[in-house]
Structures are given as structure tokens and as C-alpha cells.
């Protein structure tokens, strides 16, 4: 009797699982793909890399030797290379983060986070970055910096503007 009952129960269960009517998932899959017409844009054309042969007698600088500071041809702008270095001049400008500012009376200080996670106060006239950058303005959302770099072709010192935006 138990064997007959288990066979009947098993066949009833298999019959219930095999019904195709009312299967919402199968209907959804069949209907969702009807109106799809996919279009894939063609890949952009890849331009081949053209290597440049290094000729040590040519006009190119040797990429494996450090460049030396050239003597300027004109007596124009010159940085003070004998002044004592400040702590934030040890880091590249890109690695410094402007994280906040303070006002003490008429002085405005910017809080700059270095890669070693030390937070330093800087004000107008302080130096930071590895390109002799001097802070010229501090606003609520950026620090404006005037860097002095040497032009590779002429050897003259030139100024360029840089900035560090507030990190939120």
C-alpha cells in the first residue's frame, strides 16, 4: 500500500511540474526580445604607433640622463635657489590636497594635506610643490600658485600659473 501511494504521489508531483500553461517567466522572455534591434557602433580606427629612433647626435635630449639647469641667456627672472626650503616643497604639486582654510584676523591660511597625511598651514608667500611654487592667493575653493620653471629650449626662467582645488 505504501509503494502504491508513493508512486501515485510521485506521478502527481511530476505532472504538476510539467505544465507549460501560466509560466510567466517563459512568456516574459519570449515577449521581451521581440522589439529589440541592437546596433553596435564600429570600433574606432587605431592609428599605428610610430617609434622614433633616438639619435644621440641629434637635437633630442637623452631620456636616460637627468637634465641639468641651463644657464639663462638673459638676465630676466631668476628664482632664489639659496633660500631655505619649506616642508611642502618636497612633494609634487599633484600629490598635495587642499582640505580647508582658516582665518586669523586679517590672515587667511589654507590647510594642505601632504602624502604623509600631515596637514600643514600655508599662507600667501609660502612655497609648495617641486617647481618653486609660491602661494599668491587663497580662496574658499582653490589655492592659486605661481611656479617658476626653466624653459627647456632657451634656458630662461618663466612663470606659470597652477592651482590646487578644494577636496570635498
3D structure, described in words:
This protein has 2 helices and 7 strands, in the order ααβββββββ. It has 168 residues and is an alpha+beta fold. It has a domain at 87-165: SH3 type barrels (Roll), CATH 2.30.30.830. The strands form 2 sheets. Strands 4-5-6-7 form a 4-stranded antiparallel β-sheet, with no helix packed on it. The relative contact order is 0.13. The mean pLDDT is 82.
Structural class: alpha+beta
Number of strands: 7
Which residues form runs of ≥5 with pLDDT under 50? Answer: none
- Tally of alpha and pi helices: 2
CATH architecture of the domain at 87-165: Roll
SSE order and pairing:
Layout (H helix, E strand, L loop, with lengths): L1 H16 L6 H9 L64 E8 L2 E7 L5 E4 L4 E2 L4 E6 L3 E9 L6 E9 L3
Antiparallel strand pairs: 1-2, 2-3, 4-5, 5-6, 6-7
Descriptive keywords:
168 residues, alpha+beta, SH3 type barrels, four-stranded antiparallel beta sheet, three-stranded antiparallel beta sheet, 2 helices, 15% helix, elongated
Give a nutshell description of this structure:
This protein is an alpha+beta fold and 168 residues long. The chain is 15% helix and 27% strand.
Amino acid at each position: 500500500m505504501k509503494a502504491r501511494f508513493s508512486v501515485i504521489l510521485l506521478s502527481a508531483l511530476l505532472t504538476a511540474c510539467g505544465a507549460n500553461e501560466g509560466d510567466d517567466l517563459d512568456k516574459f522572455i519570449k515577449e521581451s526580445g521581440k522589439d529589440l534591434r541592437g546596433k553596435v557602433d564600429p570600433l574606432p580606427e587605431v592609428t599605428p604607433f610610430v617609434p622614433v629612433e633616438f639619435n644621440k647626435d641629434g637635437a633630442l635630449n637623452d631620456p636616460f640622463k637627468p637634465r641639468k639647469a641651463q644657464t639663462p641667456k638673459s638676465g630676466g627672472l631668476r628664482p632664489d635657489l639659496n633660500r631655505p626650503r619649506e616642508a611642502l616643497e618636497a612633494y609634487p604639486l599633484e600629490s598635495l590636497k587642499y582640505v580647508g582654510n582658516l582665518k586669523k584676523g586679517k590672515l587667511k591660511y589654507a590647510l594642505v594635506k601632504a602624502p604623509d597625511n600631515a596637514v600643514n598651514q600655508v599662507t600667501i608667500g609660502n612655497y609648495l610643490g617641486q617647481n618653486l611654487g609660491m602661494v599668491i592667493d587663497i580662496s574658499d575653493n582653490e589655492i592659486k600658485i605661481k611656479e617658476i620653471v626653466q624653459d627647456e629650449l632657451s634656458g630662461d626662467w618663466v612663470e606659470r600659473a597652477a592651482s590646487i582645488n578644494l577636496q570635498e
